[in-house]
Amino acid sequence: xxxxxxxxxxxxxxxxxxxxxxxxxxxxxxxxxxxxxxxxxxxxxxxxxxxxxxxxxxxxxxxxxxxxxxxxxxxxxxxxxxxxxxxxxxxxxxxxxxxxxxxxxxxxxxxxxxxxxxxxxxxxxxxxxxxxxxxxxxxxxxxxxxxxxxxxxxxxxxxxxxxxxxxxxxxxxxxxxxxxxxxxxxxxxxxxxxxxxxxxxxxxxxxxxxxxxxxxxxxxxxxxxxxxxxxxxxxxxxxxxxxxxxxxxxxxxxxxxxxxxxxxxxxxxxxxxxxxxxxxxxxxxxxxxxxxxxxxxxxxxxxxxxxxxxxxxxxxxxxxxxxxxxxxxxxxxxxxxxxxxxxxxxxxxxxxxxxxxxxxxxxxxxxxxxxxxxxxxxxxxxxxxxxxxxxxxxxxxxxxxxxxxxxxxxxxxxxxxxxxxxxxxxxxxxxxxxxxxxxxxxxxxxxxxxxxxxxxxxxxxxxxxxxxxxxxxxxxxxxxxxxxxxxxxxxxxxxxxxxxxxxxxxxxxxxxxxxxxxxxxxxxxxxxxxxxxxxxxxxxxxxxxxxxxxxxxxxxxxxxxxxxxxxxxxxxxxxxxxxxxxxxxxxxxxxxxxxxxxxxxxxxxxxxxxxxxxxxxxxxxxxxxxxxxxxxxxxxxxxxxxxxxxxxxxxxxxxxxxxxxxxxxx
Amino acid sequence: xxxxxxxxxxxxxxxxxxxxxxxxxxxxxxxxxxxxxxxxxxxxxxxxxxxxxxxxxxxxxxxxxxxxxxxxxxxxxxxxxxxxxxxxxxxxxxxxxxxxxxxxxxxxxxxxxxxxxxxxxxxxxxxxxxxxxxxxxxxxxxxxxxxxxxxxxxxxxxxxxxxxxxxxxxxxxxxxxxxxxxxxxxxxxxxxxxxxxxxxxxxxxxxxxxxxxxxxxxxxxxxxxxxxxxxxxxxxxxxxxxxxxxxx
Lengths: 666, 248
Hints:
The complex is a heterodimer. Chain A is an alpha+beta fold.
């Protein structure tokens, strides 16, 4: 039987968290001064955790590979953050946010964790407003909301199309206050390359200074991994170029189980790829689906004419367009969850209706919204008999106020004006629901090692709803970890400083140094990117929006062969004692080459469709994901050397407060 | 298209550094400027030449990591974009492009085109925050009404990405647009009032300590700012600073 203990407290769902907090051990303020905590990653989860832990009195060290904590990739989140405030009076509640999240995750998340997330969500908004985060407001001075996919209420708070930026700068400002007090010591342009265990507990890390190349030892009483997701295993994703899974993978290799790696989110609205040189994909926020309508032409003749440049999308009448989401899912329309919207786009493009040269694009059209807002504005401003041009001008101004930065971004990349012609979009890898397995305390299977934010697996099941990543990152960092970590650290008040001149640190450092030296001395044939691109292609082709047993078996073999070739033939220029981006990247790609294989293995074992994991063998008659009761568990993988040897542990998922149903958005 | 690139190479902070010419071939007009740099680096690695170090991360114009002074302009010839959003369609086949790091005394070069902008962080440590604990025991978010106008203006200031283009573009290497943006964000909001006096004084003092120059109102920073941060923010900071010193 499984060794996994989720440590979910007993008692009714609604009072679990409060009761639990009332009974866990605390550390007195004087003792907190003697306890050190390492936080790896300074995005929403890491930044908020570091600030809060420092406020509580712990000595915190933060590590990030960027030149400043403010640049973590949380900054690129666009649309918003969910919170069950019910400011709109549209029937929202903690339970409804909980319910939407579990359903949206296709009944593959842990009930108690999700309820806690919904419970603390409202407080996040209070907190951020107090920090000076300039959320959008209405003319009465109250906070404004918008809607996101998979829900029927407006609970998303936003700051233009830069919500992630503003929330991250809020967490960064909270960190800065603690840095000024000396409670946080930031190590920027540093990368964690291993965790150090002493007597089975996480007691420190080995880090590399990315500027000097120096290898450093850092000890602590607990280590928090907040290093984000592993979307870059696909090479092309909406992640930042530096986003990587190395910290998460290193703790996995030292004993932390890795959960549900096959659950990845392919986001429906991204700018389509244009060529082989492409280095990353750009997201167009889900908030655009509030006002944008998605379509492809109904007739193949029109598709061909558009591809050949003989027709423009604006030439097509309403009758000639197939608003396929509105057609297939009348209840949710363009606001179905991401996995459903992505698959529907793929279905149309696979059927030949893609509207660009590669055949991999659909339209996201704002003409109707511009018209609707124009008429509304004319009424508000008492303009009668407004001309079509005037209505367009009034409507476009509203759309600009809501999504201006996104439209500008699109125009710069694609060189087309989305106010005048529909955007072209296609799904792209965006987020990973899978990650390090954690219990209710957010502790991994290594005592004293925690994983928070996108790096863990617990809240989003098989599919994350829009605007929930920011919510989870901040919930973990501000409101959950600071409580639960105290329960563990209360046993460390007499431990004293952890020394770094011990055999455990020696061994971990040697392992890191050997690997770095290997890369530099290997002088192989191919660059790191050569391997990363090849891995990305295998992942996208076989582990993308739809998967089947044959393809997954092929992927496992191909990745394994590619990994062998990498260790033989990789070429890393430069030296170990300087700023060397290729060297840093080599280590990250080496880890992706292992993670990718485990990913495919996990997808092969999960013989059902759930959320973002779509197995072609398991679908309903109309092509929807078909879940199977016997797979209502978390797959948590234990490292045993090669990915093929990984051992599967199952955490059964129990739903006591929610009825497990066929997920329907029709 | 084929291009000639004149690129600043410098092994580390102590090296004197020099411009080196490179030819790069098979560049598509749809590439971003950094994708062009990727192509060049891949070509260099395959030739056994050390690739050019440059900062980059999100590649969608929001993280502020990328820099580069291209043909005499921070983030290159396009307006309202960072280098990662600059596209090669802004250039022609056969062009010669000069690429340098952001230059300022307060931004020492780390390697090639990578500079150290930690001075910006230290200015933020000096006062770029509101002293509120993250305990969650704050008042309801809607308890204080904030006019849409003030919230929007604060948001405009808060969109600064801290890239340093303002400093690189200023003949005095002044950081006043960067500091003014942060001071303004809080000055425009009720939450920022309590600490307004200390904030502006401390941030300005740290800015001076880091070796940034003064503002002489040439406005180059506003022109080159990829996020369109307005000069009004400098004026607002000056007003805050003056009033803080009168209040003592």
